[in-house]
Every structure is written in structure tokens, then in C-alpha cells.
Amino acid sequence: MNYRMYDLIEKKKHGLALTEDEIRETVNAYTSGEIPDYQMSALLMAIWFQGMTDEETATLTLAMADSGDQLDLSAIPGTKLDKHSTGGIGDKTTLIVTPVMAALGVYTAKMSGRGLGFTGGTVDKFESIPGLRSELTEEEFIRIVQEVGFVDAAQTKDLAPADKLLYALRDVTATVDSIPLIASSIMSKKLASGADKIVLDVKCGTGAFMKDADAAKALADQMIRIGKLTGREVVAVISDMNEPLGYAVGNSIEVQEAVGVLKGKGESRLSELCMTLAVEMLQLSDQAKSTRQEAEAAVREVIASGAALERLQRFVAAAGGDVSALERTASAAACTAEFVAAQEGYLTCRDAAEVGLISTSLGAGRSRKGDSIDFEAGILFRKKPGEYVQAGDVIAELYTEREEALTGALKRLEDVYAILRERPEDRPVVYEILRQN
Ligand code: URA
User: Fold this and answer.
1) Which of 49, 101, 267, 362 supports an S-S bond with 106, CB 3.0-4.6 Å?
2) Catalytic residue at 368?
3) Given this model, what pLDDT does residue 308 score?
């Protein structure tokens, strides 16, 4: 490295912008092990306090994207779309929106993550389908997009290894929650995955990284600006994560709920968010309609005709999964319990992240990387926040193989779900849509 790390830390500590060369050299030297963690930690903390300019953030994004393999999607015709959610509870939108896009003739090549902590992961949800392989080779990944119109798999290559290392360091140095660092981390993986245009679902609320709409908007704006500076069109949907999305939180039960939406029977907030994401993707694509109303009608049509569900079935078959699992309508967990309303009133959710953690305690998620998952575990809500419940109504059903986990989970749900006399204010599921200008 041609610079002294000490000088770069000093520069950033005083709020000066680092040059492109300084950022690229730092990222490369850290990835190769030349810079020790203590110096990189000091630089990250200086960034946390001083921030980064748009140019610095875009350079950091590109440097991390360039640090490993890049996926070449040129064999797939037309504009390739990607969709990314900043993570939430009960978020099965990818399982719905990507087959809808395929039925509309829009190619989506998506790499998804596994769940950790309170957030679920799309890869785990797909892997709850017996036989389905998420770990695809690059050839399989491309072939499935060509044949089916979409793919959703675990990362096929070593994408953005610099981000992986830096994220692990941020995680232990209290430097995760920095907007330029989060934005560059997410966008570096999106750039390396090769799509031309990206729709971001930036969650805000008690079950999201960004707790309020202003912070989510700032993150979304930053990612849109990175897109502009790096030649990718980005649209960001700011959506609510103050309650789980839809009725199901788990894995196989979320697949069942997603299939229900593709059969036209979705919970209203989940359906609305899926419609918004699908319309934004369609309007960015080569198949864009002249009005938003026409785009919505086109999405409704591929759901009503069964074309979107048929794409999901084709994808499951192409990835080696048992297509008949898509017809299941209940969890096969050995132990169940009901969470029942103790009194009448309006239901409210105080902490969506805690619902994710309770579901994890039942076996549906991981506390640590590498933990195994019980695909049948989870929570299926029968009532949603804002609904009026009577004493004795079943609010949710819990599923697990761990009978001993049920008592604690029920107790925790009682703390999270309050039943109030006053009707809580309605919260929209989509707060705002931000586009490049
Ligand atoms: N997700 C990421 O990929 N990176 C971050 O920094 C935060 C969330």
C-alpha cells in the first residue's frame, strides 16, 4: 500500500474526504490482510463520526464490488432486474414478486441470504421445499433464469469479499449503523451480482435496521445516489416493518402464504407491498407499461391466470424441489400451541423484531451462523394489529419441535402484543417511493 494508514485515519478524523486511490488501496490492503483490524477499526469509527461524501461512498462501493468475483449475466437477454430487501419479519415478497415478473417477461436474477437473528432469509424459505437446492453453480443459475425467467439462489460466487470482512469488523466495533457504510455494503453486493436495475425495499420500524422513516429515507437516498454514480438505475420503496408482514413467520408456512398470494388470496398489506414492488420492477424493465394503472392490471392478470404460480412451480422443479409441496396448507410441526386474547380490544404489536426472535426460539431461525433450522416451526397469526379481538380469540398458532420452548414463547408474545381500548392509528405499508432524478 502506497499510503500510511495512520495518515488516512488522521485525515478522516478531521472530516476530510479520502481520494479514490486511497479508498481502493485501503480496501484491497485490508482484504489481503495487510492492514490490521485495529487500524481499520479506527478508520471505520472515524467514518462513523465524519460520514463520507457521495463520491467516497460510491468509490467504496465499487472497490468492495471489485474485490471478488462478479456475475456475468450477459447470456440472459434484455434488462436484468434485481430486488433487495433490507430485511424484516415475515417478508416473503421475493417468493411472490419474482415469479410475477417472470410471467410478465421480465428477467430477475437474484441472490438471497439466509436468516440470522430476528430477520428471516429467502434462501431458508425456499429450502423448506423438500429437495430444492439453493446452492447452484453459476451455469445452473444462468440456465434457470433463461428457462424459467427468474432465479433465486444463495450466492454462487465469492461476491464482494471485502464487504464480508468489513461487515464482520463493523459488527464488533459498533460501526454497523452508519448510512454510508450500510449503503455501500448493500450496493457492493448488488453491483457484483450483475443486474442492470434494482428495486430496493427499505424497511423501517421496530423490526428493521432503520427504526424511523427519516432514517430509512436517508439510507434509500444514499443507495439511489450510489446507483446514479455507478450507472445502475435504483428505485427504493420505503415500507413499514412495525409488525410482521402477512400472517406467517417461519419457513414452510411462509411458502404456503406466498402461494396463497399467487392464488389471489393474500393478506392486504402483504399484497399491497408485493403489488408496489412488482409495478416498480415492471416499470424499470423493457416491458414497462405506459401507466401505473396498466402495470397494476398486468400484475393482477398474471396472478388471476395462474401464470405467476406456474413460474414458481417451474422454478421449484428446475432447482430440484418437490413441486407438490407448494400445495401444502399447514405446518407439519409436532408441537403446537395457541396464543389467545386475554381480553377484548384492539390488537397492537409493540416490537416486530421480538416476534422474529420468538420465532427463532421455536426453531424457525438461527441465533448463530450455521445453526440448523426447523422448517416447520414458526408463528401463524390469525389476527393482525389494528383488528378488534374478543377475549378467547386465537391471535396466533405456534409451531415447533421443541415442546419446552412453547411456554416461554407464549409469555413473550403476551408482552409484545398489547390489547388496547383505543383503536391505534392505521399505518400505511408503503410510506414512500424514491426514484433517481
Ligand atoms: N445489510 C448489509 O448487507 N450490510 C449492512 O451494512 C447492513 C445490512
Assistant:
1) 101
2) no
3) 98
